[in-house]
Design brief:
Strand order of the largest sheet: 1-7-6-2-3
Radius of gyration: 17 Å
Number of helices: 6
Distance between the termini: 50 Å
Largest sheet: 5 strands, parallel
Number of domains: 1
Helix content: 25-40%
CATH superfamily: Rhodanese-like domain
Shape: globular
CATH architecture: 3-Layer(aba) Sandwich
Strand content: 5-15%
Number of strands: 7
Order of helices and strands: HEHEHEEEHEHEH
CATH topology: Oxidized Rhodanese, domain 1
CATH class: Alpha Beta
Length: about 200
């Protein structure tokens, strides 16, 4: 009985990963993290709904991307892992280059402190698709005292359709395609502004 009570206290305080929220580990090594803590968009929503302010939910996309693809107010804050560099062109794609946000970890630590939370607080990171920024943003926190960093494996927009008329459209899964709350109206209080 003492063990069960201790386990409940650790989970309630956010000092232990929550076993009921765990998507399978991604096969692609680029989508894996040292913590091996993964949730899909529906699990992220339930985790935030059940744990409320005891979990920090961060959208790690560039604010300009969010402006055109939408945002969920379920997220506590937007802290981009990478931001568009309008002065540089991507060497392989017809888009602007992306640069790592040098203030990424510092902004997360500051947000935790402002909310009265610690680095032991469960943190959920969500990007567009769970791959190119979700796992790398989590890896950026490794070795800096964070203990419970989750990545949303299907991201905000989900995976691409592989065949047919809508090939390459992100309509397979993800926050937007799972019937979860989102809007094109942004909450200015939650958007990232460089200091």
């Amino acid at each position: 009985m003492k063990f069960v009570n201790s386990l409940f206290i650790l989970v309630a305080l956010g000092l232990m990963p929550i076993a009921s929220f765990s998507a399978p580990e991604p096969v692609n090594p680029k989508k894996q993290t040292p913590w091996k803590l993964y949730v899909d968009s529906k699990e992220a929503y339930e985790m935030k709904r059940k744990m409320g302010d005891k979990v920090l939910f961060i959208d790690v996309r560039d604010p300009i991307e969010i402006m055109f693809t939408g945002f969920t107010d379920v997220a506590d804050i937007n802290i981009p892992f990478k931001v568009a560099n309008k002065d540089a062109w991507h060497s392989k794609k017809p888009v602007f280059s992306m640069a790592k946000n040098p203030d990424f970890e510092k902004a997360i630590a500051s947000t935790l402190k402002a909310k009265g939370l610690t680095k032991d607080t469960p943190i959920i990171l969500m990007c567009r698709s769970g791959g190119t920024r979700g796992a790398p943003s989590a890896q950026q926190l490794w070795g800096k005292g964070y203990t419970n960093v989750y990545v949303v494996t299907d991201g905000f927009e989900g995976d691409k359709i592989k065949d047919g008329d809508q090939k390459n459209w992100r309509l397979v899964n993800g926050w937007k395609n799972s019937g979860l709350p989102w809007s094109y109206k942004l909450n200015k209080e939650k958007m990232y502004f460089k200091n």
